[in-house]
Amino acid sequence: MPQRQVSSKHALSRHEIPFGVKDYIPPDSYRIKEIENTVLNTFKKWGYSYVITPLLEYLPVYNNGDIGFEDDELVKVIERETGKTMVLRADFTPQLARIVSSKMRSARGPLKLSYSGTVVKHHRNKGKKEIYQAGIELMRAPGINADAEIINIAVDVLKKIGIKDFVISLSHAGFINTLLAQLMLKDNTDDIISLLIQKDYSSIEGMSGLSKEQRKTLELLFELYGEPDEVLSKAKKTFKGTKYNLFINQLHRIVKKIRWFEADNRLILDLREMHSVDYHTGIVFQIFISGYGEELVNGGRYDGFLKKYGYDVPATGFGINLSALLGILPEQ
Question: By C-alpha distance, which of 329, 330, 332, 323 is closest to 32?
């Protein structure tokens, strides 16, 4: 019986993969698993228990009008059985919020959870992107000591996997959110937030529709970057009020704690920092490594976020980009 002919066009298409994703083959597949094991073992030593989450979630977990993820960021599919919209895992934090609020309320004390796996979403100006990551969530733990703990763990993880030189960038979501609310930008709000996320400060300076006072305040904000003591001093002199004093005091305390457990690497303060995910409310941090253009570690406090899932408890955490480490760490 003659075999059916398959065109080369169709054969070649079977070798393609979707934009923004990748295969990991040996030796990289083994290396990323070794890195992951080191990271998860470090989390375990700090008392964090491992949780496995599903690849698919229903849309309300990520976007129900108040979660903070835009529809155009999410990769969606329709569930055949129900017709409901499902979303490929775009972030672990909403999943952990769902799990804790529905299945772990009876647990005592602070909840310390870790995770690992892929997340997929459309990034602004970057298209769809799959990232293999690991991270932790510390829930039911308020205060600066909890903020310091997760930063300490992030530092410990980097050193355990062989990264010695890095920069910790510290900011406060409450500071910039209060400032933007105070400015009452109205029609310009979304544009300015987008440019702050992209760190495109020059475009903001040239933006029309801003009053002289609004422009001056934003220019003062742009100066709040650099060595912590200098930035905090400038912020204290420039931005007055109870809320600003609270944020500045929190930053001063966390700076002291970070310097105590990590004196070898540079610490900077960036009060201009605006994150693409807007559920953060307090101390926020990123860790950068020379030669890699994006942050390797990203995290911070997100009090009030679990209230959206019916369980109002404080929380903080971070994620580390394991995919990026393949190109950063020397081969062992």
Answer: 323
Q: Decide: 286 and 320 in contact? Cβ < 8 Å.
A: no
Q: C-alpha 126: how far from its chain's center?
A: 16
pLDDT in tens, 23-48: 999 999 999 999 999 999 999 999 99
Q: Which long-range contacts (CB under 8 A, 24 or more apart) does 192-195 make?
A: 192/218, 193/274, 194/124
Reported residue count of the chain is 332
Mean pLDDT of the region 251-256: 97
Written as six digits, the tokens of 182 are 């105070």
Name the DSSP letter for residue 264.
S
Nearest to 63 by CA among 308, 242, 301, 240: 308
Task: Find the radius of gyration of the CA atoms of the chain.
Answer: 22
Could you give the CA distance from residue 321 to residue 133 in angstroms, rounded to a whole number? 5
The Cα–Cα gap between 35 and 25 comes to: 15
Please write the tens of the pLDDT for every residue from 111-148.
999 999 999 988 766 667 899 999 999 999 999 999 99
User: Do the Cβ atoms of 280 and 300 come closer than 8 Å?
Assistant: yes
Q: What is the DSSP string of 82-135?
A: T--EEEE---HHHHHHHHHHHH-TTS-S-EEEEEEEEEEEEETTTEEEEEEEEE
Amino acid at 84: K
Q: How far is CA 10 from the centre of its chain?
A: 39
The predicted-structure confidence for 173-228, as pLDDT tens digits, reads as follows 999 889 888 888 777 777 777 777 777 777 777 777 788 888 888 888 888 999 99
According to DSSP, the residues that pair with 284 across neighbouring strands are 171, 300
Helices marked H in 223-294: 228-238, 242-261
Output the DSSP codes for 208-241: SS--HHHHHHHHHHHT-EESHHHHHHHHHHH--S
Asked if residue 169 lies in contact with residue 288, where contact means CB atoms within 8 angstroms, the answer is yes
